[in-house]
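Most newcomers find our protein records easier to grasp once they have seen one. The structure tokens are whole numbers drawn from a learned vocabulary of backbone shapes. The record below serves as our worked example for the rest of this section.
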Amino acid sequence: MDQYGGGRYTWDVAKEFKWHRIQNSIATNPEFNLMQPRYFTVYLETTFPINFLVDGRITENRTLGKDDALTWFKTNRFPNDWYRTGIPSTFANITDVADAHVIKPGRNVNGVNTYEIDPTQPDLYNFCGIYVDFANRVVPSMYPKPTGAILEALQINLQYLYDSVVDSCPGQQQFPYGKPQ
């Protein structure tokens, strides 16, 4: 926070922090994997402090001060006199962070510093690809043969997920468990 944000969590801090964490992981974690869904969520969680933890009365130049950050993360409490934001967050913040230092989805394939891009993985600009991969690979890997209430809940939530990307993915709804009855 001090080096890039003058003691505050800013978009510049978010960009540099995420880049340095990814580079550190490539260099120190032989099993580092930055493929979906993790690829999307590493950027999503980087935007979380500004999108959700900044006092809602701050509407421009939204940054998170060090004292408020410590209150949130060290004591798990709301800062004194804090208001929730009324500003909707968008995926634009995610791509802004990612665009600062572009790295494609991939993983270390043979120990540390062996990061290889996986061209089969969708990047952050391919919401349809992220959705299709999540619906057809990620969810079924966690729930291989759901039945009853779990199957029903999965189908409902997969519908919600598709509804959120339908503009990017018209006519490409996925049904990994078959169409709901």
